[in-house]
Amino acid sequence: MATFLRRPGNLARFSRRATECVGRVGPSSVRLPQSKLSSLITSQRIRTFATQGPGGPTPPDDKTRNSQSSGNGPENDGRKDEDPNKSESKLTEKEQQQLDEFIKHIESRIPPSQHESTQQVRKHFMKNGLPAELKEFMNNYKNASLMDYLRMVRWLFKYANEHADKMAREEVARDMKMPPEDLQKMKDQRQSEKDNEKDGKQEKTEEQKKKEKEQESEQGKKQKKGEQPFPPPGSKVFEFRFDPASFLITALVTYYVYRSFFPGDSGAREITWQEFRSNYLDKGLVEKLTVLNRSRVRVDLNREASAQAYPDSNGQPVSHVLFSIGSVESFEMKLEQAQYELGIPTGERIPVAYVDEVPWGSALLSFAPTLLLFAGIYWVSRRAGGGGGGQSGIFGIGKSRAKKFNHETDIKIKFADVAGMDEAKVEIMEFVSFLQQPERFQKLGAKIPRGAILSGPPGTGKTLLAKATAGESGVPFYSVSGSEFVEMFVGVGPSRVRDLFANARKNTPCIIFIDEIDAIGKSRAKQNFGGGNDERESTLNQILTEMDGFNTSEQVVVLAGTNRPDVLDKALMRPGRFDRHIGIDRPTMDGRKQIFRVHLKKIVTDENMEYLEGRLAALTPGFAGADIANCVNEAALVAARENADKVVMKHFEQAIERVIGGLEKKSLVLSPEEKRTVAYHEAGHAICGWYFKWADPLLKVSIIPRGQGALGYAQYLPAGGDTYLMNTNQLMDRMAMTLGGRVSEELHFDTVTSGASDDFNKVTRMATAMVTKFGMSKKLGFIHYEEDGQQIQKPFSEDTAHTIDVEVRRIIEEAYQQCQTLLTEKKKEVGIVAEELLSKEVLGRDDLIRLLGPRPFPESGEFAKYFDGKGGETIAPPEPSQNPEETSGKDGRDQTPLS
Ligand SMILES: Nc1ncnc2c1ncn2[C@@H]1O[C@H](COP(=O)(O)OP(=O)(O)OP(=O)(O)O)[C@@H](O)[C@H]1O
């Protein structure tokens, strides 16, 4: 019972039950002797009896049935004489008064809507008499302890059950015209039969089965005659019975809880010491004093005496009052004195008790912050471990975050999807054959390579290659990023590494791929320079240990990707760990073609594929695989924006331009003068590229502002194809071409602009590299000075620095002279190109051929064949019409801002 009260759920259930009882039992349906539910229970019992009873019940005659169905009003009260419980008696006057008081007391603490029900309870007890237990409880309920309440509740349960049973028996007996005692006997017999059946000890005989059938058919007949049908066996009837006992239980429990939470408001009146003295003490009404928590005193009064002293208290004499005291000592003194003054002999003095009461409510409230704290910690720990691969709670934080890809379902990438990088593929193929046929290597005594580091610029396909390796070898693939080992808690990194390798060992053969390994694999010596990072270092150490820990038979291959192989710790790269170092560079012309081929497969286009791939590859020198994938996607988006039904060359070129130069800034409107300057600047570059033998010829030039701060944009074709070495001539021509913009401004305008600053930066860097790295200055000789912005001291002397300055200046001056000579000579051509640019804003290679004639130098066949103007449409606008009116109209519109 104690646990019952402690569980709020139980209390809630009780209160709900009471509420529902009270809610649904209207005045007309409250029939104490038989509730709606009890009639259902009764029906169920009748059926039980009917199936098993000898001979079956006799159908009741209509009269009986009608009187029963018409309700259980007072006309049926003949039953009260049959009350078998002899210990219950009718109420005496005193008892009745006591019951009324008790009911009133309960009513004063429950909502008025429930008063009707309490009256029904009262009626019930008035009619059936007060049980001894209830009588006893009622005598002293105001001072009842928790144990008294519990005992009472337990008794009420019992009483409710017995009462329900009794009513059911009476009901059935009436139906069967049989004394309830016989019915009880039959019920017991049925119960024992049931038990036997359950144990498999007794089997039904043929005869019994026959009898049962007969009973059932009789029952069927009865139902046809219009009797109330029995609910089907096993069916659940969700109804609540109103019975006085359960109502009383609920009321008592609610009251007790209420009293525990608000002990001060339990009805006792608050008085002062003077009142106490004059009204109670002096009149001899005080029975006992209880000092509560050393601050208040409860005065227990003699009820009868106080009823006489205060006859106008509505029949409810005050049983106790309260008053506050300053301190126990002063109270004792005052009491002592008062009793002395009243002449109360020492032996008859009022007894004083001392009690420390802790109200439940405030005790619970004092625990609330602690409980909240624990709940919070529990919640946070559950959330923290949520992603921890199965183990939840804060302890899951050390679990590896690696994603496992299932080789059968998740990894669809094969080597065929990885274009170019043939050498890398060959290298990595060996891992595949190791995972597929390890015995081929082992039988020759070869040690299996543990892992490979894939290094290269961003987007060159390192992750793709690792995935393809897993897809090709058909083994599980664990992918994790180096940064996922790093956590704010100490020890999490190494623990995740351990967990990753432990998982991998359970699933051999498999591949682990650690992307961006430089996040944890940085050289330990370098880290310590800035204060070090112990956590990262221990994570790295754990990786080193785990990779050492593989025994040769374990087929776990570790691949790692990084853009910065130079910063990696040497211990990681030593043989036995990452044995292979596979460098993946940006693709060559051929590689780009292959990558375009892979990505163009998904694009809807009817261009000649071979030509398209070649031309796009030629247009995108220096692009990595990811850039190419982006370009192709961008082209499809451009086409979609134009509502085109297929992607054509123009869309691809626009996409490439966008990837290289950035977004067109149509909103940036230059003044006509600025636009003119930009046109002549770009024309200067274009003419240099066209007429210098070693420079890159122009592919496209535009004066539409793009990206960040670029007012013009020119794209050049690599003259010698993909170049990996540059000679002095190439460098000089390139520098001269880069200065072409400024020289052109000088030649065509009175003043120069700031637009060439980026060109000067490029030229300076090229000239410095020629002097300090490439050994192209006779004065300085063959020396290489590392360029490191973080160096505090220059690695050369003041003299050398001076010489470098002089040489750089000389080289730039030479390039300038070279450029000036050419542009002075080709001033007219610069003008032509600039004016055309001003009118069209964009010029292509075809336009330059039209304006300047073919380039006077042979070009790399591989590149040039895609730009002969035959294979595909360029984005250059159509040639201007010969009709002067049409031209001026069109150009006039375009040139509005210039005029
Ligand atoms: N050789 C290639 N063939 C086909 N597609 C490629 C190739 N290289 C890159 N790509 C494309 O580029 C995308 C990005 O490549 P990936 O993620 O492998 O680059 P990465 O080298 O790992 O980059 P990072 O160093 O930044 O991690 C791929 O999803 C793929 O679409």
Walk me through the structure:
It catalyses: ATP + H2O = ADP + phosphate + H(+). Pfam families: AAA, AAA_lid_3, FtsH_ext, Peptidase_M41. Its cofactor is Zn(2+). The structure is a single chain. This protein is α/β, with parallel strands linked by helices. It folds into five domains: 2-60 and 85-244, no CATH class; 268-357, name from scop, CATH 3.40.1690; 400-585, 3-Layer(aba) Sandwich (Rossmann fold), CATH 3.40.50; 590-659, Helicase, Ruva Protein, domain 3; 673-894, Peptidase M41 (Methane Monooxygenase Hydroxylase, Chain G, domain 1). Helix content is 53%, strand content 7%. A six-stranded mixed sheet has the order 6-8-9-10-7-11. Strands 1-4-3-2-5 form a five-stranded mixed sheet. A hairpin with a 3-residue loop joins β2 (286-292) and β3 (296-301). The longest helix is centred in the N-terminal third of the chain and has 31 residues, at 146-176. It is elongated. The model is unreliable at 1-88, 200-205, 220-240, 386-393 and 871-899 (pLDDT under 50). Adenosine-5'-triphosphate is lined by residues 418-421, 458-464, 515, 561, 563, 595, 598, 625-626, 629.
